[in-house]
From TrEMBL:
The chain crosses the membrane at residues 53-75, 96-115, 135-159, 171-195. Homodimer and heterodimers. InterPro entries: CASP_dom. Its main location: membrane. This is CASP-like protein. GO terms for cellular component: plasma membrane.
Length: 203
């Protein structure tokens, strides 16, 4: 007679050895603090305040574009022909010619800045990086502003030499006023560009 013995075999899973590096990593993950709602609100406030600066700069660029366009067209438009001994073209005055060229340069620069501002809002950092854009705007704003204030000052000397009854005198007055208005807008843009540059470099 055969006796069958049932053997109960218990299979224990092998103990996995955990390395000290893994234990330290798990401990660090457990000790990570939960993000505070105040930090999230601060980040959201920063991102919400940045578009306002961009839109303000964009509005100033648009004003500079309009003012420089009016300054250039008022000087470049052919004046009405009148019987006068005074020259009817601004090209015979070097001061007015200088003011006309500077107005065209300010118009081209304002159009470029307006296009760049739209690209920065739509596709941030794709057209020109933010750091290069801040440095370039700060330097070129001061350069264009210097040219505008110098051309406006020089144009006053030419206005005094033109007869007040002529149409060229009226065109020179309008061009000089618009050129000075463009200078005020560019100067404000330069202050805003300097603020953004200082905020990036120092703060």
């Amino acid at each position: 007679m055969k006796q069958e013995r049932d053997m109960l075999v218990i299979q224990c899973p092998p103990t996995t050895s955990v390395s000290p590096a893994t234990r330290n990593l798990m401990a660090q993950q457990q000790q990570l603090p939960t993000p505070s709602p105040f930090s999230l609100s601060a980040v959201s406030t920063t991102w919400s305040s940045r578009p306002s600066i961009h839109f303000s700069s964009l509005f100033l660029r648009f004003l500079a574009l309009v003012f420089s366009f009016v300054s250039a067209t008022s000087m470049g438009a052919p004046p009405l022909k009148k019987k006068s001994q005074q020259p009817s073209s601004f090209t015979q005055f070097s001061e007015l010619m200088y003011c006309f060229i500077v107005s065209i340069l300010a118009f081209i620069y304002s159009a470029f800045q307006l296009f760049k501002g739209v690209c920065d809002i739509a596709h941030r950092g794709i057209f020109i990086s933010d750091m290069i854009s801040d440095y370039m705007s700060f330097i070129l704003d001061q350069l264009i502003g210097y040219l505008l204030i110098s051309s406006s000052s020089v144009a006053i000397l030419a206005v005094r030499q033109i007869e007040q009854s002529s149409s060229l005198w009226k065109a020179a007055i309008i061009s000089d006023i618009m050129s000075f208005s463009t200078f005020l807008v560019i100067a404000t843009s330069a202050i805003l560009s300097g603020y953004r540059l200082c905020k990036r470099v120092i703060w």
